[in-house]
Amino acid sequence: MDPGSRSRVDQDSLPTSLVDPLLESVEATADLLHPSSTSSLPQWYTPHRLMALFCSILFLAYLDMGCFASNGVNGSLEPRMGIQGDFNLSYFADGVLPAAFMIGLMGTSALLTSLTARFNPFRLIGIGMALWGIGAVACGLAQGFWTLLVARMLVGSGEASIITLSAPFIDDAAPPKAKSRWFAFLSVFPSLGVAAGYFYGEAVSEAYGWRVPFFLEATFAVPVVAFTLLAPPVDLKGRSKPQASDPGTEADKAGAGDTQGSRSVLLHDMRILHRHPVFLLNAYGYVPIQACLGAFTYWGPKAAMQIFDRPKAIADNTIGALTICTSIAGTMGGGYLLDKMGSSLQNGMTLSAASAAVALVACEAAFLLARSFVVFCAVLGVGLLGLFLATAPLYAVSMWAVPAEQRPSSQALLVITMHLCGDVPAPPLVGALQGVLLNWRYSTAILVAGLVISVALYSIGIPLAKSAPDYRDMPSCQAVENQSLQSPDEVEEAH
Fold it and tell me: Taking the model in full, what pTM does it have?
């Protein structure tokens, strides 16, 4: 390797090297407590216990999102209250805060792609939730917009681990004939957490002020962090731990050739994933859905309160209850329907296309045509049902359309794509539109129109999915993928 190439390797390795000492110390401590951490599953493990643990973590993580968006915590300029009132934030600046959260989440998701090849993914979830708790405390201590912005990025960075790594674990644990329903059940808890966060944020902030809910969240995270860092860990199928006697194994497993480091591993994995068009259409098709969910989550209670002149508590509680009901019915219904239709890639894309079409029509009708709060909630409920119906097919197709070794990378790319193009720009975009139009009906309807893109991309994917390979229960394809990605020069050097 030439000196210039070595320099590039060192630069690529920098992001990972900054966190290596922390992760290595965590694994060393865990090995002292549980020295027999080889191939056998830990005594505490059953598939249902693992599911319960991840559902609890997701609920807690998304409780923060609902809490932050609640009228009690987020507040308003007139009357002056909560975060927006205390820090005198415009609608656009207020909308930037959830975008900062997503930026932190996306950046860490990309880093996790390389870290899972070197450290146990279960431990990474513990590290992430510890970071999440620190970020929650920082939110409660924030003294202005910029400190709160950094705190929200920290919370997002911590949340990335459970969002990126939970689906591959559940794909391993779920019974083959019920995988869609397991994905659906797991996907219910983010929505439940957001909805519960509306109630939680409103109730606690009303009694103790908007800072206290964040301190309580951090307290709730302590037992989760302790268990995921100290209990005997579970590992992902298809993930081979590098051997100390072979320094080159790690790079070979990552498929990075002569280069190592998080950037080269990530780029290599992205090259592989972009050879699977069904995965890409599934991921990009979900972007407008994620944008709508992100905007509704953040602006929904405030929009309902101002459109129909309802008290903030009624708006928070009604939108929260509507989110709970539609998320459970829609997400579980999507998993059930996919299993009943036959859990194939083509059926997953078909169900997603139909769900997006229903959501498009119903959400536009709710915001543009409804003239009473009751009718608005009923029609919006149908739209939310359509949005949530697409959740289980999203995760199922993203797991089955790529080789098993690429599942953590596929989830990282999925998270980056749907957040970078979806709910990162959506809240500030809607906030900026509202600042200009001063009409919540038009501001939200413009965003909802983007669901046309979802319907189109899923429809394109339906015929492609019919002939695309389904990687469930297939033998390892990593060697084939790596060989097909080699350049002619690399092949000549190998011989």
Answer: 0.70
- What is the b/e burial string over 329-368, where b = at least 16 CB atoms within 10 angstroms of the residue's CB? bbbbbbbebbbeeebbbbbbbbbbbbbbbbbbebbbbbbe
Helix, strand, coil shares of the chain as percentages rounded to 5?
80, 0, 20
386 in helix, strand or coil?
helix
Q: Are 365 and 253 in contact (CB under 8 A)?
A: no
Query: What gap in Å lies between CA 116 and CA 409, rounded to an integer?
Result: 9
Beta strand spans in 253-360 (E): none
Neighbours of 83 (CB within 10 A): 21
Q: Mean pLDDT of residues grouped by 10 in the chain (495 residues)?
A: 40 44 53 48 89 93 90 84 89 85 80 78 91 94 94 91 85 83 86 87 91 95 93 76 39 39 61 86 95 89 90 85 90 90 92 97 95 95 95 90 82 83 87 91 95 97 92 57 41 39
Q: How many CB atoms lie within 10 A of CB 450?
A: 16
Nearest to 351, CA basis, from 274, 282, 412, 293? 282
Distance CA 409, CA 406 (A): 5
CA distances (Å), origin 144, targets 32, 54, 83, 138: 43, 33, 9, 11
Residues pairing with 495 in the sheet: none
Give the pLDDT of residue 192: 86
CB 235 within 8 A of CB 121: yes
CA distance 73 to 67: 7
- Residue 120 Cα distances to 146, 229, 236, angstroms: 34, 10, 8
Q: For residues 98 and 76, what is the distance between their CA atoms, to the nearest angstrom?
A: 16
Token duo for residue 329 = 């019915």
pLDDT number for residue 187? 83
Amino acid, single-letter form, for residue 449:
A
**Amino acid found at 367:** F
Residue type, 86: D
Query: In this structure, is the dihedral angle defined by the CA atoms of residues 479, 485, 488 and 489, taken in order, positive or negative?
Result: negative
Residues with Cβ within 8 Å of residue 426, at least 6 apart in sequence: 290, 291, 292, 294, 295, 447
DSSP assignment string, 291-316: HHHHHHHHHHHHHHHHHTT--HHHHH
CATH of domain 45-237+260-488: 1.20.1250.20
Residue 124: closest CA among 162, 171, 156: 162
Residue with the two structure tokens 């994620």? 290
For 207, other C-beta atoms within 10 Å of its C-beta total 9
CA-based R_g, the chain, Å:
23
Q: How far apart are CA 151 and CA 132, in angstroms?
A: 9
